[in-house]
Design brief:
The chain has two domains: about 1-210 and about 360-420, FAD/NAD(P)-binding domain (3-Layer(bba) Sandwich), CATH 3.50.50; about 215-355, Succinate dehydrogenase/fumarate reductase flavoprotein, catalytic domain (Flavocytochrome C3, Chain A, domain 1). Helices cover about 30% and strands about 25% of the residues. It has helices at about 10-25, 55-60, 65-85, 110-115, 170-175, 195-200, 260-265, 280-285, 300-305, 315-325, 330-340, 405-420, and strands spanning about 1-10, 30, 45-50, 95, 100-105, 125, 130-135, 140-145, 150-160, 215, 220, 245, 275-280, 290, 300, 310-315, 350-355, 360, 365, 375, 380-385, 390-395. It is elongated and about 70 Å long.
Length: about 425
């Protein structure tokens, strides 16, 4: 079998790339290891967003590659219009996503169906890319697939790695993210275990910057369960309006930078856990309700208690301190900390939830340029090899400027680069 583009991974980046490639007249094969295409995107709330401009993107993600950030921001509107042109239901834009971004809600089921429709026979589930084929000049020229019916050799003019990152592999996460990160619960597709990273490295790819950075949110610690249905209800988006303390009873992060940033900070704290504290106004206005204009209304504290989280409600700060102290938190230091934060804790009752970090996807991965070309240690393109989505690293850190948008912008961009190279 010979194709123009072989895509490893049927998540958002892989399907968006394949769909655009087919529009351009390219022959495509998608190899998806799971039982269905969609990857982690199929588990998300369908919010497609990014920074409103390049300056904001660079401020939020100062570790990000400037060329990648520019390509993301400048390609965002075109990605939204592509979906609308395909008949996918896309909401009007709103501002303030993650405190600074612009966003749209997308009907993901119809988007994935739009991607599937022209691809009959072009994608296979329960199929992995086992090994890349590299010619004598170091260019990737195809791959060996491992499918339900055995091995398949595919010759390809280009290969796209879009397997979703490495957050599902505890050993890789512990080694690359560090700080006991292998213990974090995974808040995404568990099949994203670094397949693209290993394939790229075997072909000579370099690793990107920000390998120790990741996207995720604070969730209750020591949960009795954490399944796909729990991902949104148990996410403590409102921590940006709360006080976070470590086991020593001290604040350690600037909470207003966002829950996704505090999530990374908690990992580095003693025992990798913290306590989220707020008053009744914050609970009422931020912990209860939809995280997005199109989200479900839920009491996140009640959901945390139902899932086995450690939660206390107290009529006074003194009572709250005493009860949180029973969790092993330094009560004397905590009392002093909350006295300093009195302005944020005015309306009783007061609430405290023990929280821990989780991981949705990694910010580090293979080093790429703005067209998704995978680069070696010398910065030179490993010919015919591309990466997109969470397999492509170096765009974000420490702040977060997009998830679904990465696949919707860079997947088609890769397809266009492959088409231009014919």
């Amino acid at each position: 079998m010979t194709v123009d583009l072989l895509v490893a991974g049927g998540g958002m980046a892989g399907m968006a790339a394949a769909a655009r490639a087919i529009e351009l007249g390219l022959e495509v094969v998608v190899a998806e290891k799971g039982d269905e295409v969609g990857g982690s995107a199929a588990l998300s709330a369908g919010i497609v967003w990014t920074a409103p401009d390049v300056e904001t993107a660079r401020r939020v993600a100062p570790e990000g590659d400037p060329a990648l950030l520019q390509a993301l921001v400048e390609g965002f509107d075109a990605a939204i219009e592509r979906m609308r042109d395909a008949g996918v239901v896309v909401s009007e834009r709103w501002s303030g996503q993650m405190g600074f971004g612009v966003a749209h809600h997308v009907d993901l089921s119809s988007l994935l169906e739009h991607y599937r429709a022209p691809m009959a026979g072009a994608w296979s589930t329960r199929t992995t890319v086992a090994e890349l084929r590299v010619d004598g000049d170091g260019a990737v020229c195809g791959a060996l697939l491992d499918g339900p019916d055995g091995p398949i050799e595919v010759a390809a003019r280009a290969v796209l790695l879009a397997t979703g990152g490495f957050q599902g592999d505890a050993e890789l996460v512990g080694r690359l993210v560090g700080w006991g990160a292998e213990r974090m619960p995974v808040r995404s597709n568990p099949g994203s275990v670094g397949d693209g990273l290993r394939l790229g490295r075997a072909a000579g790819a370099a690793l990107s910057a920000s390998l120790d950075r990741f996207y995720g949110h604070l969730i209750p610690d020591r949960l009795g369960r954490f399944e796909a249905a729990d991902y949104l209800p148990l996410t403590q988006y409102h921590s940006a309006h709360s006080v976070l303390v470590n086991v020593h009873g001290r604040r350690f992060t600037e909470e207003s930078r966002g829950d996704e940033t505090s999530n990374q900070a908690v990992l580095r704290e003693p025992e990798g856990r913290a306590v989220l504290i707020c008053d009744e106004r914050v609970r009422r206005e931020h912990a209860v309700g939809p995280p997005y204009p199109h989200g479900q209304v839920v009491d996140r504290f009640a959901a945390a208690a139902d899932a086995g989280g450690r939660l206390v409600h107290a009529g006074s700060i003194a009572e709250l301190v005493a009860r949180v102290g029973e969790w092993g938190v330094d009560a004397v230091a905590l009392a002093a900390t909350l006295e300093e934060a009195a302005g944020a804790l005015r309306e009783p009752p007061f609430h405290a939830l023990a929280v821990a970090p989780c991981i949705t996807f990694t910010f580090g991965g293979l080093r790429v340029d703005a067209d998704g070309r995978v680069l070696g240690p010398d910065g030179v393109w490993i010919r015919n090899l591309y990466a997109a989505g969470a397999d492509a690293g170096g765009l974000q850190g420490p702040g977060y400027v997009g998830g679904l948008a990465l696949g919707l912008v860079f997947g088609p961009r890769v397809a266009e680069a492959v088409h231009a190279s014919r």
